[in-house]
């Protein structure tokens, strides 16, 4: 099977081999060296020299909710930018935390207008702005994130970003763009297995988190950061062998270079969008805001996403994802991340073309 899902991703052999090592204790010097290297490399990936990184054992959802619960208290007013399924899930997390949430929305396949964000900021005082960077459900990336973050900082807000499907695959500069908190994970653009996620916090965000009350023990990001500083350890038992895989995946990313990987994913995504034009699939997101890491394709009107996903898997060993929410059966989602090359895109396109022939025969 060849994975083209937007996480988890197809892994390189070196990553798989790294995970096969014998497990070690997380209270040893060997583990401390491993964790320190992973933390330093993640700082490179999010482009921060000023911030700190908390490494968590769990999926990207844990990272996002840890960001919410470590920075927000019940009654805090938050401005949320939402333009898809995961923006709405972020809204639910904030509401469950007890935040008062105002939302700036955009049509599916597009991003919010900066003027709408500024109007919201002028009307009320907020503690923080939360947004998804790459919306996995629609294949959209918030290309105006830097401008929006600068605007939010002018009004004194924390800027908190769910970058689960973007980190390592989209241009992103935490310090330069004035980002206070960013959540990422191992199993997408970095090219490691699932099981580890992380949150990077700015110095300002750390100060805020230290004062927040009622943080669940496992989601308290300040505790993770303190353990790294004082012991080079995690406070709880981590997924050690996943960290071995992550260490190797990060080394591979560094050898390619961040900008090199950003360019490669953008090239492959654009290649996919160009190739499918001839076989009746069309790009769902607006061109200017398309993601470099998640391609979302509208299926031919006489076919269903469910049947295409099933046929691709059973006939060609290709695994893609259906749409989410109201797009469940009208689009397919392709992860252009992980160990994927140009020939893989060509194989996927040939499989999609054959699917149409099979389903219409």
Radius of gyration computed on alpha carbons: 20 Å
Structural class designation = alpha/beta
Assembly state here? single chain
Q: What's the CATH topology label of the largest domain?
A: Aspartate Aminotransferase, domain 2
Task: Write the SSE topology.
Blueprint: E1 2-3, H1 13-19, H2 29-46, E2 52-57, H3 60-71, E3 77-82, H4 85-97, E4 100-105, H5 114-123, E5 128-132, E6 134-135, E7 140-141, H6 145-154, E8 158-162, E9 181-185, E10 196-201, H7 203-211, H8 221-231, H9 240-256, H10 258-275, E11 282-283, E12 294-298, H11 305-316, E13 318-319, E14 321-322, E15 331-335, H12 342-360
Parallel strand pairs: 1-13, 3-4, 3-5, 5-8, 8-9
Antiparallel strand pairs: 2-10, 6-7, 9-10, 11-12, 12-15, 14-15
Any overview of this molecule?
- There is one protein chain.
- The chain is an alpha/beta fold and 361 residues long.
- The chain has two domains: 13-255, 3-Layer(aba) Sandwich (Aspartate Aminotransferase, domain 2), CATH 3.40.640; 257-360, Alpha-Beta Complex (Aspartate Aminotransferase, domain 1), CATH 3.90.1150.
- The protein has twelve helices and 15 strands.
- It has helices spanning 13-19, 29-46, 60-71, 85-97, 114-123, 145-154, 203-211, 221-231, 240-256, 258-275, 305-316, 342-360; strands spanning 2-3, 52-57, 77-82, 100-105, 128-132, 134-135, 140-141, 158-162, 181-185, 196-201, 282-283, 294-298, 318-319, 321-322, 331-335.
- The strands form four sheets. A seven-stranded mixed β-sheet has the order 2-10-9-8-5-3-4, with helices on both faces. A four-stranded antiparallel β-sheet has the order 11-12-15-14, covered by helices on one side.
């Amino acid at each position: 099977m060849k994975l083209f899902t937007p996480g988890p991703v197809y892994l390189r052999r070196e990553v798989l081999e790294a995970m096969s090592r014998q497990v070690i204790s997380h209270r040893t010097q060997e583990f401390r060296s491993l964790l320190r290297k992973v933390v330093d490399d993640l700082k490179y990936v999010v482009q921060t020299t000023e911030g700190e990184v908390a490494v968590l054992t769990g999926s990207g959802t844990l990272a996002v909710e840890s960001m919410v619960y470590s920075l927000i208290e019940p009654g805090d007013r938050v401005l949320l930018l939402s333009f898809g399924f995961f923006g709405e899930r972020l809204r639910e997390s904030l509401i469950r935390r007890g935040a008062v949430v105002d939302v700036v929305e955009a049509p599916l396949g597009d991003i919010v207008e900066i003027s709408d964000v500024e109007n919201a900021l002028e009307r009320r005082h907020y503690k923080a702005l939360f947004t998804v960077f790459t919306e996995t459900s629609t294949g959209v990336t918030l290309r105006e994130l830097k401008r929006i973050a600068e605007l939010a900082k002018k009004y004194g807000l924390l800027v908190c970003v769910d970058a689960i499907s973007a980190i390592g695959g989209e241009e992103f500069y935490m310090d330069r763009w004035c980002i206070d908190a960013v959540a990422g994970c191992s199993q997408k653009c970095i090219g490691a297995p699932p099981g580890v996620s992380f949150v990077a916090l700015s110095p300002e965000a750390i100060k805020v988190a230290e004062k927040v009350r009622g943080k669940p023990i496992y989601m308290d990001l300040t505790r993770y950061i303190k353990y790294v500083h004082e012991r080079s350890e995690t406070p709880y038992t981590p997924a050690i062998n996943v960290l071995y895989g992550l260490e190797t995946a990060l080394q591979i990313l560094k050898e390619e270079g961040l900008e090199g990987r950003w360019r490669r994913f953008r090239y492959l995504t654009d290649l996919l969008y160009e190739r499918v034009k001839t076989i009746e699939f069309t790009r769902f997101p607006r061109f200017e805001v398309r993601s470099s890491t998640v391609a979302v394709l509208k299926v031919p009107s006489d076919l269903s996403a469910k049947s295409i996903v099933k046929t691709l898997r059973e006939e060609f060993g290709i695994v893609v994802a259906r749409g989410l929410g109201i797009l469940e059966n009208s689009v397919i989602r392709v992860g252009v991340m992980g160990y994927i090359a140009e020939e893989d895109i060509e194989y996927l396109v040939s499989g999609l073309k054959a699917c149409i022939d099979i389903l219409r025969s």
